[in-house]
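Lecture 7 notes: from sequence to structure.

We start with a single chain of 425 residues. Read the sequence below before looking at the structure.
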Amino acid sequence: MSSQTDGIKKENSHLGLKESVKVVASVSFMVFKIYPTGVIMQVISSTISATLPLMTAFFAGLTTTSLAEAYSGDETAGSRAILYIIITVALGLSVSVWGNIEQYVKQKMNHQVEIKLNDQMYNHFLNLDFWRYDDANTADVYEKAQRFTQFMPFIFSSLASILSAIITVILAVNALFFINWVLGLFVILSFIPSIIIEYKIATFNNNHWKKNIKNRRAKYMIEDLFTHPGAMGEIRAYGLIKHLLGLRKKHESIEQQGAIEYRKKFLLQQTISQILQASVELAGLIWVAIQIIQRAQPIGQFIFIQQLLSATMSSVRSAIISITSISQDLTNMMEYNQFINIPIRKEGNIKLVSDIEEVSLKNVYFKYPGSKKYTLKDISMDIKAGERIAIVGENGAGKTTLLKLLIGLYYPSKGSIKIDGRDLS
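Now the structure, written as tokens:
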């Protein structure tokens, strides 16, 4: 006998490093299949976005050194300074032109990705077994899948920004190691506290978001009521406006307050971490200033190192913020995969070639998936062609459920339903 089972493969909702890498790879591959040109352009763009600013800073430093040498009387330094200025401006122009191309490709890619994923999700949703539309677990996974498709273009753009930030940090730290390995080492160590703190906050937010699914759904239902003018008349007539607004505020507070309070615990640690990073940056600038005063470094090195330190610090902060903001959406990618892997309804291949003569129910039991209580118990009856049957019962007695069983939307948990001797299951 056929029966409904959840059929949703549960996956670990906590994203460790290994799981995060897998999800990122899965997102990238998914987008690549939809619009490969966009993915290639994003990778190139991330590399260019990371490289050009550092190259601009390098030539700006050379320009400053050449100008200082020209001011000191070096006749050849002036022409070098002009060349470096032209190169610096050309690099800046390249960044602007590439930015225009990138925006066009990104907009086109986001459009195609959003359409493809939404079509795939809705097509799958509309072909599920009918009982799943009343199943809480399916509704939870579907909500998370919807969230993922809504934010997918943003997620991939954020991943591209993270890639750009990582490349910037690698190039800048390598340059700092080349200039002074101690300075490069201290810069790396200054990042660690911020990364640990933001990881803890992101983990809490993920778990908090998952725990508040029902609460959030209740809030969305209230907000949806307010978007239907037809319903507003009845809501006002029964004096429910104030009550519903109060409920919405309560649900909103429950969802947001926990995350706010948890972040509050880390304010002091975040401040100390930022002071540590600023101290390392200050120490690096003082060191290069002393080196220039002692004529151990060219004067333009100050600008270059200042830009390296600034780029490194800002890129790390940018990457941390981006990772924190998309961590929940990456988790939803797993839920999206779970939703797409839910088995769809298999339609029967038997067609009625004549009018139905008899419908027979024998010892039919039915309970909804996840419920321990039977909605229908031991229902037996025979309905012959031409008979008029009245199904009577109080609310919740199972009248609608019985009709859904009769037309094949649900299958009995136990027992059988036959049409002219053929079992519906």
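The chain has eleven helices and four strands. Keep this in mind for problem set 3.
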